[in-house]
Amino acid sequence: MILIVVALIAVALAFDFINGFHDAANSIATVVSTRVLSPLTAVVWAAFFNFVSAAPVLWGVELKVAATMGKGIVEFPALQARGPHFVLAFIFAALVGAIVWNLLTWWWGLPSSSSHALAGGMIGACLVALGPSGLIRDGILKIVLFIVLSPLIGMVLGSTMMVITAWIVRRQTPARVDHWFRRLQLVSAAIFSYSHGTNDAQKVMGIITIILYGTVWSHRAAMTPGHFPVPFWVVLLCQAAIALGTMFGGWRIVRTMGHNLTKLQPIGGFCAETGGGVTILALAHAGIPVSTTHTITGAIVGVGATKGTRAVRWGVAGRIIWAWIFTIPAAAVVSAILFVLTRGLMVMAGG
């Protein structure tokens, strides 16, 4: 059992790594496309702020996104009642379903959501494992609702910041504005990377906590109302994995986000990153595992749209939106099939 648990935690960290790899473009696309930083320097900058976003845990900040992923989507006690092997099969299917979809969309160069891929994986595995009654409808509705709301909020904040900032610097020469915002974009890139680490690493913290409390720590009371203790070593592992993934970067998606969607200057990159980062941090504080991809895409479109609707390549935006729509059902189908296969193998092996 211990070896299986360790192996499954490794799979969870692999998803976390791929999450960072897949979503690196979100953190660095604007700062690279505006040529403020080289690609290598940008990924190191982003990875550093991905990792240090773990710091608030030391001050007792509650990991609300981890709690939502751990006990807000699926009725965990019902899974736990079926035994540790059942829990392990469920988590394995959910993780691999999400990983498959992430790798496919990375290959296609589409900035899809790792958050929604993991939620879709959990939903698909749960439908086979427990049926619809095993799903927590309020939690799922909240996640689905913010597929629409998070990019809209990012769009509004990005465009509003762009209009206000452009008005503030209206009397300055373009060269001076460019000079200022090439430096300020280092700050905005840090804000967005920090928010990415805060939101996305917590998803895997929630999954690993389920693995531990559903198997080797089943005697401990982790799932009581308002109580979801994530071990600090789990926090460090998850932040390190996502930061390492960011270091490798997803260059195919960088091209889509930073060049194909709209053309950005440093002032636009600053407004998009700041608007997106503030949105993600606010929603993470509320315990909503939103998509950093959706949010920054909305913010970039909002900034681009201030120059007129023709400044945004709506055909590219349409491809991205289709990827958003298909993410949860596609990951759900893969994870449902994997759960059936994994559980069948376990039964054959006497587990």
Automatic annotation (TrEMBL):
Q: Does the keyword Phosphoprotein apply?
A: no
The alphabetized UniProt keywords are: Membrane, Transmembrane, Transmembrane helix, Transport
Pfam families, alphabetized: PHO4
Transmembrane intervals: 43-65, 86-109, 115-136, 143-168, 232-254, 320-341
Coiled coil regions in record: none
The places in or outside the cell where this protein is found are: Membrane
User: What main location does UniProt list?
Assistant: membrane
Q: What topology does it adopt in the membrane? A: Multi-pass membrane protein
Q: Which InterPro entries match?
A: Phos_transporter
Q: What is this protein called?
A: Inorganic phosphate transporter
Query: Per the UniProt entry, what species is this protein from, by scientific name?
Result: Anaeromyxobacter oryzae
